[in-house]
């Protein structure tokens, strides 16, 4: 995968975490699937269904799936189990190499931030696992904003903390909801497809 950046200069780079900097989506999918199964979900949590919710907050994901499938799953129970399963696998996550290399090249010369729909402690653990935690001057997570993606709140707060105008920020995102959020914030977007380089692409494809 090669990244094609828009022409022009940008004052800051903003990154989603899961699926953009960190190739954690297969791990997230397995953790979600097992948690839903253990909690008695009536639906199969397929890869396509998972990706359709990429960028959404965890509790909001369960609520939305309850509405979609007429279920009554307890968001706290599902998310607590998903957290435990995912945390156990964090040391094994891999970087999305082209994106991480772009961030590495900009580190020290351009303000950078992370805007994620995930929990702060998990996002920071993932960034630490790929050796990138110290690169970012602002890390905005689900608990830091009133509305998650596709609302623009997280990206706008990230730009504010970095002291950069939103229109001068370039966002790296893999999720549809994240792209919507970035554009709603008035930012340009680089769409990331981690499956284009992923070493475990065949394994992931077999899970879909």
CATH architecture tag of the largest domain = 3-Layer(aba) Sandwich
For the secondary structure, the number of strands is: 7
Average pLDDT works out at 91
The CATH superfamily of the largest domain bears the name HAD superfamily/HAD-like
Rg over C-alpha atoms, rounded to the nearest angstrom: 16 Å
Number of helices: 9
Q: Helix/strand/pairing class, anyone? A: alpha/beta
Gross morphology? globular
Report the end-to-end length measured between terminal Cα atoms. 21 Å
Question: What letter string, H or E per element, gives the SSE order?
Answer: EEHHHHEHEHEHEHEH
CATH class value of the largest domain: Alpha Beta
* Widest β-sheet, arrangement of strands: 5-4-1-6-7
The biggest sheet, with number of strands, parallel, antiparallel or mixed sense and barrel status, is:
5 strands, parallel
Percent of residues in helices comes to: 40-55%
Strand content: 5-15%
Return the CATH topology of the largest domain. Rossmann fold
Q: Give the low-confidence spans.
A: 200-208
């Amino acid at each position: 995968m090669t990244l094609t950046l828009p022409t022009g200069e940008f004052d800051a780079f903003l990154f989603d975490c899961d699926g953009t900097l960190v190739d954690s989506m297969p791990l997230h999918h397995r953790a979600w699937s097992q948690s839903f199964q253990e909690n008695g979900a009536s639906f199969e949590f397929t890869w396509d269904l998972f990706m359709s919710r990429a960028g959404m907050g965890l509790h909001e994901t369960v609520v939305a799936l309850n509405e979609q499938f007429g279920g009554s799953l307890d968001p706290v129970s599902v998310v607590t189990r998903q957290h435990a399963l995912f945390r156990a696998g964090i040391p094994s996550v891999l970087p999305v190499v082209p994106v991480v290399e772009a961030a590495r090249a900009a580190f020290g010369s351009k303000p950078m931030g992370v805007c994620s729909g995930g929990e702060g402690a998990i996002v920071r653990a993932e960034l630490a696992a790929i050796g990138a935690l110290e690169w970012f001057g602002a890390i905005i997570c689900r608990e830091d904003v009133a509305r998650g993606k596709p609302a623009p709140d997280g990206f706008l707060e990230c730009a504010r903390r970095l002291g950069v105008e939103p229109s001068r920020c370039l966002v790296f995102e893999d999720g549809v909801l994240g792209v919507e959020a970035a554009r709603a914030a008035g930012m340009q977007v680089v769409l990331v497809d981690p499956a284009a380089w992923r070493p475990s692409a065949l394994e992931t494809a077999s899970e879909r």
